[in-house]
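pasting input
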Amino acid sequence: MSEPFPEPIPAMPYIVIDDGGDHYLAGSRCDQCGATMLGKRLGCAACGDGALTDVRLNDTGRVRTCTVITRSYPGVPVPFIAAVIAIDGGGVVRGTLHGPIPDDPVAEIGKPVRISIEDTGQRDPNGRAFYAQNFRPMETAA
Amino acid sequence: MSKGLIVGIDMIPFRRYPDRTVEQLGGEAALLALADAGLSIRDVQALYCGCSLQANSMVGQRILRQIGEHGMPVLNVTNGCATGASAFREAVLAVESGRHDVALAVGVEQMARGLIEMPGRPTGFREEGAIGTITTPSMFAQAGLVHSAQYGTTFEQFAKVAVKNHHHAILNDKAYVRRETPLEEVMASDMIAYPNTKLMCSINIDGAAAAVVCSEAYARKHGLMGRAVRVRTAASLSSVYTDIEDGLTDFSEVTRATAKLAYESAGIDVKDIDLVELHDCFATAELLHYENLALCGLGEAGALIDSGETAHGGRIPVNVSGGLLSKGHPLGATGIANLYELCLHLRDEAGARQVEGARIGLAHIVGGIIDYGSACAVHVLERA
Ligand SMILES: [Zn+2]
């Protein structure tokens, strides 16, 4: 019998699911060159030299690039905004930007977003929910 | 170290061949290249076979089963979109090292229609839509829009690449798409991932191309210099780290590094190049590669396409074959097909689309898979 509320699981290896609901993106920072990488590595991808420290990545960032996807694999609802986010304080992650579909995606580049780890709606064979990052536009201070 | 020579090269027209096998397509291209050289498979001492989607099923050996098995080393090569170019480079290195006098490179692919399926997550989680995108047109769309944000490059400028390359293909009877596509039609065609419309995407298709590479001593001894084109450099690099790669494979930085290596090792300047076949898998890519290959300065690609200088007859014609946008893009075959186009011009055999007086040509390929890495090859060929 499956549990009534099966525990969520990270959809990607760099996602940390916290018992208390405080989920986040995990990264590694190089003590030599300062590069911040998503998830764990055996060594630094940037310099190949430094030692890595586990870091918790921030939950805010800015759109580095994006596009509106109007054609995708069968069964994937379109349109949606695919975006690459430069995380405040270091690190880069891709994901879906939830918000009105822009006529000109270029205008979205540079805008601030909030990153939250949420239920994707997808389930594994045991009924456990895959959790992943979602991006939402942040109100900019006037 | 003496440079390798291409003494035979050919491609089959990229089409859909549902009733033929990958070894039949690759074998046909191999026989065409051998016939072009005036050699037999018995003269070949090593085979490098590029095939991306069937890389685990000994495609090189299957080709030899079709055309002759006399016992030679076979290396099956896979390297994303750079698969064929990587196989070719191995053949060049094998000859230049003195290990073999004659090596054969074959690139071949059979592909499904539509968007290329990417390797999935072992957990069964489907990334597409849930965490952005992993499709190839959208990767290059996002790369193009970085350029737009930085330099103001417009949808119209990207679309002009498709207009130009389809126009070039009118003169290439081996191209798959051979009709004029006016700017309005390109821009109004189905949007796939902004700004790449359907007419700004290369088609997944079947194809094969092959090249016979030999040493200069062998070519002279066997009277093959009449067909010879010199490989001035065979440069390849992969996965140059950049700080965007956790969100998007970076095709630009690896191309810049490979191009720099190619120019330095060939001892040439970009001004010496008479024609370029570059990796226009999507229209946005071509503009980025103008700058990555130093055909113009940073931020000048939009102005360069506007100027018409990359069209046939211009200062630096790019993709006079029609490019991948017109020929189609059978992953494993594409890299060698680009070299075939250069050889036509360097041998004065390109017919109506001949770039007059061409002496040096550059072929570029770059591929990659999101979250995995990139692979790039730049070859410089010279009239021998
Ligand atoms: Zn480092």
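fyi Chain A has a mean pLDDT of 93.
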